[in-house]
Amino acid sequence: MKVLRANKHPIFPQLPNLKVDVVDLNDIELTAEAKWLRKRYQPFEESCNKAGMLFPITYTDYAHYWDPPRETRWPTLWDKYVVHNGNKRVFYAKKYDYTHIEGYFCDCKDTKDIIVRTTFMGKDYYPK
Question: How far apart (Å, rounded) are the C-alpha atoms in residues 25 and 75?
C-alpha cells in the first residue's frame, strides 16, 4: 500500500469527531472537468514534487452530496466517493502510482466549508 500522506492535519474545533481517513484511490472519482484540471495542474505538481501534499482532501458519497450540484456532477450509476476539494491531489496520487490518499469525509456542505476555509490554497501560495 502506497499512501499519499498530508504534511499538515489541522484541528477543527467545530468538528471534534472529524478524523483523517485513508481512502483507496480506486474508490474515488474526480469532480473537476479535464479542461479545468489541465489548466491548473502543472504549478501544483511542481509544488507537490518539492513540498509534498500539505493537507488531506475532502470527499463524500452520494447520500451526503448536496444538491445542487449532485444531479449535474454525479452519474447515477457511480458507487464510489467523489472529491470535494483536492482534485489535483487525487490526480497527482493516481499519476504517481499511489494506491491510497488521506482525506476527510464530509457528511454535509457545512463540514466541507469548515475544512476548506482552513485548507484551500490558491496557486500563488503553493510552497516552492
Answer: 18
Q: What global pTM score does this model have?
A: 0.88
- Residue corresponding to grid cell 469525509: 105
With the CA atoms of 114, 116, 94 and 51 taken in that order, what torsion angle do they form, in degrees rounded to the nearest 10? -120
Task: Supply 121's cell numbers.
Answer: 490554497
Q: For 79, list phi and psi in degrees, rounded to 5.
A: -125, 30
Contacts of 18 (CB under 8 A, 6+ apart): 12, 104, 111, 115
Cβ–Cβ < 8 Å for 61, 112: no
User: What was the pLDDT predicted at 69?
Assistant: 64
Phi, psi of 76 (to 5 degrees): -65, -20
Q: Please report the pLDDT score of residue 80 as a whole number.
A: 83
pLDDT at 90: 95
Residue-wise pLDDT for 48-82, tens only, equals: 999 999 999 999 887 777 766 666 666 666 678 88
| Residues near 109 by beta carbon (within 8 Å), at least 6 away in sequence | 66
Separate counts of helices (H) and strands (E) for the chain: 4, 6
